[in-house]
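Long-time lurker. I teach an intro course on protein structure, and each term I like to show students one example going from raw sequence to a predicted 3D structure in token notation. This year I'd like something fresh instead of my usual example. Would anyone be willing to generate the tokens for the chain below so I can use it in lecture? Attribution to the forum is fine with me.
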Amino acid sequence: MIHAILPFLTAIALSIVAAYYSVIGLAQIFPGSYWPIVIMGSVLEVSKLVTVSWLYNNWNVSVRMMRYYFLVAVILLMAITSMGIFGYLSKAHIEHSTSLAPLLEKEFIYEEKIKVQKEAIENNRKNLTQLDAAVDQIMVRSADEKGAERSNQIRKAQQKERTRITDEIDGSQKAIQKIIEEKSPVSLEIRKAESDFGPIKYVAEVVYGTHDRDIIDKAVRLVIFIIIIVFDPLAILLLIAANQTYQALKKAKEEPEEPKKAIKKKKVDLPPSPSIESLISSGVLRLKETDLPDNHEVIHKDRITKMNDE
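-- Reply from a regular --
Happy to contribute to a lecture. Here you go:
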């Protein structure tokens, strides 16, 4: 009986969990009528299980149109359940992904600020390079002392500009350091939130060869589809298996036990015991007249005497 009860209880447990996910998912698809959708989904889930059980036990005795309609209704209810499960799990993933959006926006703003400061540093360094190039050109054109003096004069004239550029570079570097310090808590929160995506990242890496954010969404949908395939259909098949096992046990219990057959001893045909005459005629036994009792009939004496003579 345990072989029938265990699949039945497992099927009921799977159906309850699938019904919960499905009902909540359907209610989230139609948020304007939350409780009516919950009641409708619950009744449909119970009706599905009852229909499957009845259809299995009465397939041969039910009207053809009725059993075909029940079969189509069960398939459609399984599709509705799967749709509700998909909606529930998708919403859970979207909510978790949405919680990252504000943090990602803050991180993007900080990165843009750092990028602007780095560009300012790069431009200022280019300006310093140009100033150095102007001095170098004077030195190349004139190799005498006047050229060197002219170069020094130009460098002194550039001193104010060079100081300004150097101060701007130092200010940009300090600004970058400050932005990085402000960005660190946001980046830490993002890393903690993305740690929840660790397993699905490995799935995306194995299936799609990368773990980009868009690919992670595809991997999540793939996992949800796999769960749907083995969730509600498995509950239905386990319920059918429980009914099948129960019917088999019931049939075996109703059949009368066959009486044990009596063990018959095999009759062995033994050869007949040889007679005295055959033993005497074959020479195995020889008798004398004195061996016979006194009151033995004469006819027996004659027979024995004749046999001895032969």
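Some talking points for your students: The radius of gyration is 52 Å. The first helix runs from residue 2 to 29.
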